[in-house]
């Protein structure tokens, strides 16, 4: 079990995990965020949210300059680390196709096959606010997408199967989040992004970095499989999270959201590290 003295990377989902599913509040986790910051343990946000949304949240949480993973792993930002001992390492990396290419593919499929869905690029910030509960300014940040599209599916399950096949033929993938489906390049995911970031940390200082991940939704499974210690936060998804037999260190919380986030850290980080 890790302690606060170990080289530890905390990787966290946002909605339904560090952020309350209904209110988007993170205050219940404030004590642990301060504790991790005091011990120089990086808190890496790994979310379906955009880079613009994450940077705003980092400022509020006191996590400015920390690495983050945006748009379900389609965008990687190395933060201050990318400007440190590895100056040739890209600070921001897009994996696969950019937003314009993904939107073009989706619009072509809708015209040619008649699929029924609405993406963030199809609507204004007012409607996104209705879907998410976000204020108009925050909804605009959610529209600043760089490497994926969030959408609401309005068609049948049978048509969904056909839609996924058409996406795969275009080197795209569909994943299910807590509120929306997300279309991004095939091979881009939270797990691959976490492994990339861990390798970067280990190359930078040679220390045996451990990782602890926290998430609540189906799109967090690959992230939780990529870390040493996995916290499955109690959530509202109808699909139970199953990490498979390869992930041994798994804890399921009784509490939701940031309360569950705190519960998970208290379970895995040893009491010796709290002294």
TrEMBL record:
Alphabetic keyword roster: Hydrolase, Magnesium, Metal-binding
Gene3D superfamilies: HAD superfamily/HAD-like, Putative mannosyl-3-phosphoglycerate phosphatase, domain 2
Domain called Sucrose phosphatase-like: residue spans: 162-268
One GO biological process term: mannosylglycerate biosynthetic process
Keyword Metal-binding applies: yes
SUPFAM superfamilies per the UniProt record, alphabetical: HAD-like (SSF56784)
NCBIfam families: HAD-SF-IIB, HAD-SF-IIB-MPGP, PRK03669.1
Protein name: Mannosyl-3-phosphoglycerate phosphatase
Organism field: Sodalis ligni
